[in-house]
Design goal:
Helix 5 packs parallel to helix 7. It is globular, with a radius of gyration of 22 Å. Strands 1-2 form a two-stranded antiparallel ribbon. Strands 3-4 form a two-stranded antiparallel sheet. The chain has 325 residues and is mainly α. Strand 1 and strand 2 form a beta hairpin. The protein is built from twelve helices and four strands, in the order ααααααααββαααβαβ. 59% of the residues lie in helices and 6% in strands.
Length: 325
C-alpha cells in the first residue's frame, strides 16, 4: 500500500452524487461507454481483483484514486451488481449503442417485406431478451423453462404486433404517408421493447431483494419489482425516442438531395450512424432518469413483509433495491 490512497473510499457506491440527475448522468456515461466492450478478459479480471482487494483493505502499491475508480467502473460495466457474475458481452450496457444502432438501422432499412420484418423483429427481441436477462434485478436463479417461456412469449407477441403495425404502412397507397414509413418501422421497435421486459417476468412473481440503507437484506418484494420494471420500461422507451424521431426526418431530407440519388447505397450506413449518434447520448441520459439504487416506503411493501420489517427494524421507513437496467 502506497500510503497515499485513503483506505475508506466507498467504491460500493458511484463516484458521483446519485441524488442528482447530473451525478447519475456522469455515472451512466462512464458505465455505458462503448469502449468498455473492447476490454480484454485480463483487464476485466484485473479490475475485479483491484475492487475486491480494496474492499478487503488490500491496496496494490502505487494505486491512485483515479485508477481505483477506473477499475470500479470497469468492474461495474462487466459484472452483475447482485450476483457478481460476468455479464454476457452483448447484454452489457456498454454494448447498447453499437448493438442497438446496428439492429435499429437494419429495421429501418429492411421493413418493406414480411420476411424482413419477421427476421429483424426476431433479432431485436432476441437481443432484448439477452439484455433483460443480463441486467435483471435480484440474484435468484432462473430455470431454463422460465427463460424459454419468457423468450417465446416476448418474441411471439412482438412479431405478431409488428406485422399488424407493418400493415398500417399500407395506407400510404391511399394517403400520402410514404415519407413516414421509416417512422412506423422505428415505432415498432420502440413500442415493442416492453414485451421482452414484462412478459412473463419472474420478478413480478417472486419479487426482488430489498435492503436497508446499509445493504442489509430484508426480504423479497414483488411491489418493489413492479416499481423497478416500470422505471426500466419508461427509460427504455424514452431511450429509443430520439432515434425514432430524428433520423427518419433527416433521411427524408437527404434522400431528396443529389448525393443519395447518386450513391443510394450510402443510405443504410448514414441511417445507422444517425441512430448511433442519438443513442450515445440517449442511453446514459435515460438510464439516469431514475436512481440505480431505487427506494420505496416500507408502507408500500406487501403486508407480510411490512410486518416482518416492523418487528425487526421498527424505526425503518424506506427500503432500497437495484432497479435493473
Amino acid at each position: 500500500m502506497s500510503g497515499e490512497l485513503p483506505p475508506n473510499i466507498n467504491i460500493k457506491e458511484p463516484r458521483w452524487d446519485q441524488s442528482t440527475f447530473v451525478g447519475r448522468a456522469n455515472h451512466f456515461f462512464t458505465v455505458t461507454d462503448p469502449r468498455n466492450i473492447l476490454l480484454t478478459n485480463e483487464q476485466l479480471e484485473n479490475a475485479r481483483k483491484i475492487v475486491h482487494d480494496y474492499r478487503q483493505g488490500i491496496v496494490p502499491p502505487g494505486l491512485t484514486e483515479n485508477e481505483l475508480w477506473r477499475a470500479k467502473y470497469i468492474y461495474d460495466s462487466a459484472f452483475h451488481p447482485d450476483t457478481g457474475e460476468k455479464m454476457i458481452l452483448i447484454g452489457r450496457m456498454s454494448a447498447q449503442v453499437p448493438m442497438n444502432m446496428t439492429i435499429t438501422g437494419c429495421m429501418m432499412t429492411f421493413y418493406r417485406t414480411t420476411p424482413a420484418v419477421l427476421f429483424w423483429q426476431w433479432v431485436n427481441q432476441s437481443f432484448n431478451a439477452v439484455v433483460n436477462y443480463t441486467n435483471r434485478s435480484g440474484d435468484a436463479p432462473l430455470t431454463m423453462n422460465e427463460l424459454g417461456t419468457a423468450y417465446v412469449s416476448a418474441t411471439t407477441g412482438a412479431v405478431a404486433t409488428a406485422l399488424g403495425l407493418n400493415a398500417l404502412t399500407k395506407i400510404k397507397e391511399r394517403f400520402d404517408l410514404s415519407q413516414h414509413s421509416t417512422i412506423f418501422s422505428r415505432f415498432r421497435k420502440t413500442s415493442l421493447n416492453f414485451f421482452a421486459r414484462v412478459l412473463p417476468c419472474r420478478e413480478l412473481k417472486v419479487g426482488i431483494p430489498v435492503t436497508d440503507e446499509n445493504g442489509n437484506r430484508l426480504g423479497e418484494s414483488a411491489n418493489a419489482a413492479k416499481q423497478a420494471i416500470t422505471q426500466v420500461v419508461v427509460s427504455r422507451i424514452l431511450m429509443a425516442a430520439p432515434g425514432m424521431a430524428i433520423p427518419p426526418f433527416i433521411m427524408n431530407t437527404l434522400e431528396k438531395k443529389a448525393f443519395l440519388k447518386r450513391f443510394p447505397w450510402m443510405s443504410a450506413p448514414i441511417q445507422v450512424g444517425l441512430v448511433g449518434f442519438c443513442l450515445v447520448f440517449a442511453t446514459p441520459l435515460c438510464c439516469a432518469l431514475f436512481p440505480q439504487k431505487s427506494s420505496m416506503s416500507v408502507t408500500s411493501l406487501e403486508a407480510e413483509l411490512q410486518a416482518r420489517i416492523q418487528e425487526t427494524y421498527p424505526a425503518l421507513r424506506r427500503v432500497y433495491f437495484n432497479k435493473g437496467l
